[in-house]
Amino acid sequence: MGAPFNYDVLDLTDEQVDAEVRVFGALTAAVRRLNEATLRTTVDHATVEEVRRQVEELTARLEKSMIPDNFGVSFTKGGRIRGYGNAVVGIRNPNAVPLTVVQDKVNGRASAEFELNALHEGPPGQVHGGVVALVLDQVFGEAAAAGGSPGMTGTLTLRYRLNTPLGPCSAEAWVDRRDGIKTIVKGELRRADGTVTVTAEGIFILPRWAREEIAKNGGTPPQFE
Ligand SMILES: CCCCCCCCCCCCCCCC(=O)SCCNC(=O)CCNC(=O)[C@H](O)C(C)(C)COP(=O)(O)OP(=O)(O)OC[C@H]1O[C@@H](n2cnc3c(N)ncnc32)[C@H](O)[C@@H]1OP(=O)(O)O
């Protein structure tokens, strides 16, 4: 079986990538504000109706020219990764947390400090358990990649020990051990004061199609954000 996705290589300069990160990043941040304002606004119904009409007009302007479906991941010839759609870190995805993951390639670790707000609520005032899993999946995957053994999430097991209040928090993950093509990653989610609220373990597997590709080409596995 071949790879279930393609990686296009595009002829874009660093300046062009910087410009799209700047322009689309600003749009994404603005839409995120809109998302939170949509949830929390207390303006009257007539104003809500008027804003809805304006939002629909703006949406139609963006819809005039769109890629056919999902964004995928592409690279520039200079090696820049364009994974703008990723559900956790994608810079053009207003539903992304957002999250900046710092990879430590020397020690096979990854970490992120971020803020979860009313859009991420599960129990009142607390982070939704599924959002925790979403964030940890990304940070864990990046720890496996930072450790030199990237893979798809095979299993992710979480233990929710304490509630995680909405607000600032952090996540950290590290490669615990390797077992052939499987990388076992451990890590945790913490409140702003450092209290650990969730511990987890993930098994990241270099998939069969990647193993076959590497065996064929002697290359390194593809990466995606
Ligand atoms: C290079 C490609 C990726 C690049 C990555 C770059 C990362 C750059 C950072 C990005 C960070 C993103 C982080 C988000 C990452 C997602 O969100 S990935 C999306 C969610 N995960 C999926 O969709 C995976 C779906 N499942 C699959 O594709 C396949 O079942 C798997 C997991 C790749 C395994 O398939 P396979 O390669 O055909 O495995 P197979 O040969 O049957 O078994 C190999 C070994 O793994 C074990 N195994 C198989 N399935 C499992 C499982 N689910 N759990 C535990 N063990 C298992 C088998 O028992 C076997 O063990 P041994 O007998 O060798 O001891």
UniProtKB/TrEMBL annotation:
It is a peripheral membrane protein. Residues 125-196 form the Thioesterase domain. One of its GO terms (cellular component) is membrane. Keywords: Apoptosis, Cell membrane, Cell projection, Cytoplasm, Fatty acid metabolism, Hydrolase, Lipid metabolism, Membrane, Transit peptide. Its EC number is 3.1.2.2. InterPro entries: HotDog_dom_sf, THEM4/THEM5_acyl-CoA_thioest, Thioestr_dom. It holds the Pfam family 4HBT. It catalyses: octanoyl-CoA + H2O = octanoate + CoA + H(+); (9Z)-octadecenoyl-CoA + H2O = (9Z)-octadecenoate + CoA + H(+); hexadecanoyl-CoA + H2O = hexadecanoate + CoA + H(+); decanoyl-CoA + H2O = decanoate + CoA + H(+). Its main location: membrane. It comes from the Bacteria. GO terms for molecular function: hydrolase activity. It is found in: Cell projection, Ruffle membrane; Cytoplasm; Membrane. GO terms for biological process: fatty acid metabolic process. The keyword Membrane applies. The keyword Cytoplasm applies. Gene3D superfamilies: Hotdog Thioesterase (3.10.129.10). Belongs to the THEM4/THEM5 thioesterase family. This is Acyl-coenzyme A thioesterase THEM4. It comes from Nocardioides pocheonensis.
